[in-house]
Design goal:
single chain, alpha/beta, Transferase(Phosphotransferase), domain 1, three-stranded mixed beta sheet, globular
């Protein structure tokens, strides 16, 4: 692994994102992932989970899509869970480096009107690595060395799902009536779509990467990989994101709802 990856622990993630999207200027993530300046304009994701900022987030979604409160909340979550999960799953798949997405280390703002919300990571965000990673030898306080692959996946789950996504699901459900499977189905779909989009830049089988991550998160039953028109794997959802209920209905690729 190049020496520069020791100086910039998330370089494998940012390189994969650049290859996926062709730019560092992404609609949902801070350039380079890390918030390196003007941190005062950002807010920790804990304020979404504790309910302080969540009503503003949901109001922004309703203003954007104009649907029912629960449909707009489902779409807000779909966007949020996609962007927040991407650094962790790409870190695992690209280099077995997992930024631990504790809500206190994930920063958000609403200032860019292209996306619904923009996310970035604190510079002090801990990265979990395997013993053979050059980062493991640095002794840096923001590096956590885990014993093996299973423990690395466990760290991914504990930070992304248990500490972040699951509490945010509960916070959303305190505001609107919407099922847990509906929300987690969007998270599973987003992870699968992200890994498929990055497939050409990642080592190993994209199908196997998706299966491994979703199994670790206990989300594997919410999506299915099926052959596309050219035999390529595509994501088939088993829950609906409710985009078809909007005033201007949207039908997602892999939608589980059948339309005549």
């Amino acid at each position: 692994m190049p020496r520069r990856d020791v100086a910039t622990p998330l370089a494998p993630v940012t390189a994969t994102l650049r290859a996926m999207f062709g730019t560092d200027d992404l609609p949902g993530l801070a350039p380079g992932l890390l918030v390196t300046s003007d941190e005062a304009r950002w807010t920790p994701a804990t304020r979404l989970i504790d309910g302080t900022l969540l009503p503003e987030f949901l109001r922004a979604a309703t203003a954007r899509w104009g649907g029912t409160p629960h449909a707009c909340a489902a779409l807000a979550w779909k966007s949020y869970s996609y962007w927040v999960a991407l650094p962790a799953v790409l870190g695992w798949a690209s280099a077995r480096r997992v930024p631990l997405l504790d809500p206190a280390d994930v920063l958000v703002h609403f200032e860019d009107h292209r996306p619904l919300i923009t996310l970035g990571l604190r510079r002090s965000t801990t990265v979990a690595v395997l013993p053979g990673d050059p980062l493991a030898l640095t002794g840096a306080p923001d590096v956590r060395v885990v014993a093996d692959e299973a423990e690395l996946l466990g760290a991914l789950r504990a930070s992304l799902l248990d500490a972040h996504l699951a509490p945010m699901v509960a916070a959303i459900q305190a505001e609107v009536r919407i099922g847990t499977r509906t929300l987690l189905g969007s998270a599973a779909s987003g992870i699968a779509h992200g890994l498929l989009r990055a497939a050409d830049t990642l080592p190993g089988s994209s199908t196997r990467n998706i299966e491994t991550v979703l199994d670790a998160l206990d989300l594997a039953d919410l999506v299915e990989l099926v052959p596309g028109p050219a035999g390529e794997p595509t994501v088939q959802r088993r829950t609906c994101c409710l985009a078809f209920t909007l005033p201007r209905p949207k039908i997602c690729q892999g939608c589980c709802v059948r339309f005549s």
